[in-house]
Amino acid sequence: MNHPSRKICFVTGSRAEYGIMSPIMSAVANSPGAVLQIVATNMHLSPAHGMTVREIEADGFTVDRRVEMMLDADTPSATVKSMGVELIGMADALSELAPDIIVILGDRYEMLAVASTALVLGIPVAHIHGGEITEGAYDDAIRHAITKLSNLHFAATDEYRKRIIQMGESPDRVFNTGAPGIDGIETTATMPFDSPFDHFALLTFHPVTKEPAEAEAQTQALLDALDSFEELPVIITMPNSDAGGRKIADMLGKWADAHPDRARAYTSLGRARYFSALRQCSAVVGNSSSGIIEAPSFGVPTVNIGSRQRGRTQGNTVINCPAETKAIKRAIAKAISAEFRHFVATEGSNPYHRPGSIEAIARILTSHPLEPLAVKHFHNINF
User: Fold this and answer.
1) Domains of the chain
2) Which of 243, 305, 190, 311 is nearest to 74 (CA)?
């Protein structure tokens, strides 16, 4: 007797998120009885953010639907309106594809629209990287909202798994799989990053969505700190599409143009070149989760600036500092010191590493019974 194929739909809106999910997509595509579907939205379809849907296709995947949503503005109001546009397009895309389960990752606003659409359409959602805390961003609330809209959960640490269960999710649907992005380090083919510099800091600085009025001042504090390290070249990857991102990108781009002897700015490196840059860099600087989750596995120090990642579990390779020039200078000086680099190389730890993460997630996606997921019961904890 032939069993019907299971249609597993991955929805992706950013380069970083796709980079983490792509090895899982490959594992699902190679699983008997599974049909891979992909919906691309948001930054993937934006020329200003590198039109990274082309990277998905270059990796050999078929993008089944494209859902446009970005508006020509850089304000919180425009973000809300873009979510409305996305809801309309996502309703059509998911109704047409009719997946058996949808897979999303993280905490971005476009994924909240996806989870909301799936809820109303009656399609179960599998959520990767729930249960985490990032107090400086409204992404924190979005992440927890997506948890309540989801039916299967893949947490990156045991602490995060417990937090998801605290929110009423059934323990038998919450799995500690580790961070698949780290597992993907070993499976992702690297692409040579032809750096013009022998050594460099790898910088990614995103808007802090709970502090939109501070974006310009925080970015300037970072640039002023970098001006103190004339012998330290900088490779910049541009920020995401959150409100305030364009101002930050403009400031970073102008700074790079003004320092052609020691700086280069890239809209997107892609996952393979980004990993290559991570292997070569002296330190990761900024406020991206990559510096906390992935950089430690490369034996690279991280300078984590400001409140964007506050509350996220960290290893001992991360140096935290406020978004102030003097504090950033001290943190960078420590990160690139021979003493700290030796410590990171010999004693660095990564709490997110769990071997077999990709295989575990793919196995659960392709084999977990779907019919019981239609009903969710609140799991009470006896205090």
Assistant:
1) 6-178+354-374 (3.40.50.2000), 201-347 (3.40.50.2000)
2) 243
- Return the percentage of the chain with pLDDT > 70, whole number: 97
Whether 291 contacts 209, CB under 8 Å: no
pTM, to two decimals: 0.90
- What does the pLDDT look like over 290-349, one tens digit per residue? 999 999 999 999 999 999 999 999 999 999 999 999 999 999 999 999 999 999 999 999
- pLDDT for the residue 210: 86
What secondary structure, in 3-state letters, does 68-136 show? CCCCCCCCHHHHHHHHHHHHHHHHHHHHHHCCCEEEEECCCHHHHHHHHHHHHHCCCEEEECCCCCCCC
**46 and 241 in contact (C-beta within 8 Å)?**
yes
Could you give the CA distance from residue 68 to residue 259 in angstroms, rounded to a whole number?
Answer: 35
CB under 8 Å to 41, separation ≥6 — which residues? 11, 12, 13, 66, 67, 68, 69, 86, 89, 90, 110, 114
